[in-house]
Amino acid sequence: MKICVIGGANADITATTTKEFVPNDSNPGVIRLSSGGVARNIAHNLALLGHEVVFLTIFAGDTFGWFTADSCRKAGIDISLCDTAPLGSRSIFLSINNADGEMIGGVSDMNAINGVTPDWLELKLQKVEEVGAVDVFVADANLSVESLAFLIDHANKPLYVDAVSGPKAPKILDALKQSKKKHIHTLKCNRMEGDLLAKAKGIDRRFVSLGSDGLEVTVKKNTCIFPALPCDTVNVTGAGDALMAGIIHAGANASIEEAAQVGLRCAKLTCESPDTVNKQLKELYEGIS
């Protein structure tokens, strides 16, 4: 498939303690720098799964932005239509994980993405279509309400949206209200985000990650729960992005069972890696179609 992914790209600074986290004190642990951002991670996973991925974002105008853009090139993601924000802009996510790999908390500093406006998107989407039709559009809630509403109205193929986080998820509600079509093919969120979006209408399929409790899927008021796969967790950061990539990879017309199982397997692989994207996805999932 040719997939257009729109949204955040940032540097991930992940600090994982070697023992139980002690608040208000310095904790021994391991600090890693990697490329991240929900949309960027989804794009990377989809590229590993063999798809042609066109990414639309604005990279930060600093060393971290260069680092993130370079990681996309190396991953085989097409960033030819991306721009770079002015010097001093930022796009960084810092997370602190307990020794079991579960995130204790995080801080997102992503002002570079503010340059992705409806006018910017209109120009970029025209250029995307000039070089070949897109099969699927993917967006994350790092985008503004106005930009999300624009995509809801102008994506001419199935649109998948990731809620990203509790503070950003409500933007999807506002975008649906502002849009004319008021329709999203697939929404992916976690339990907290799902509660915030419970009243959202116009969504064909909802995938709600329940963490170790599995995956809740709702289609036309019918809800199923799929259990999580056994996992030796190293780092949960990025698992939700891999879940979304797996759901997309299964295809817009795939059964709920197939989409859920592919997504859960991709999430499991990511949880078992110290990185936010498990590069083994390509080798391990060459047989998925």
Describe the structure in your own words:
With 289 residues, the chain is α/β, with parallel strands linked by helices. It is built from nine helices and 14 strands. The protein is globular and about 50 Å long. It has one domain: Ribokinase (UDP-N-acetylmuramoyl-L-alanine:D-glutamate ligase), CATH 3.40.1190. The mean pLDDT is 93.
What secondary-structure arrangement, pairings included, does this model have?
Blueprint: E1 2-6, E2 10-17, E3 29-36, H1 38-48, E4 52-56, E5 58-61, H2 63-74, E6 83-87, E7 92-97, E8 103-109, H3 118-130, E9 136-140, H4 145-154, E10 159-162, H5 170-178, E11 184-190, H6 191-196, E12 203-209, E13 215-219, E14 222-226, H7 239-250, H8 256-271, H9 281-284
Key traits:
32% helix; UDP-N-acetylmuramoyl-L-alanine:D-glutamate ligase; 9 helices; 289 residues; alpha/beta; 14 strands
Count of helices? 9
User: Could you tell me the strand content as a percent range?
Assistant: 25-35%
CATH topology: UDP-N-acetylmuramoyl-L-alanine:D-glutamate ligase
Cα(first) to Cα(last) distance is 10 Å
The succession of helices and strands, N to C, reads: EEEHEEHEEEHEHEHEHEEEHHH
Q: In this structure, how is the largest beta sheet organized?
A: 8 strands, mixed
The class by helix and strand makeup works out as: alpha/beta
Q: Which strand order spans the largest sheet, edge to edge or round the barrel?
A: 4-1-9-10-11-12-13-14
What is the molecular shape? globular
How many individual domains? 1
The CATH architecture comes to 3-Layer(aba) Sandwich
CATH superfamily: Ribokinase
Overall pLDDT confidence: 93
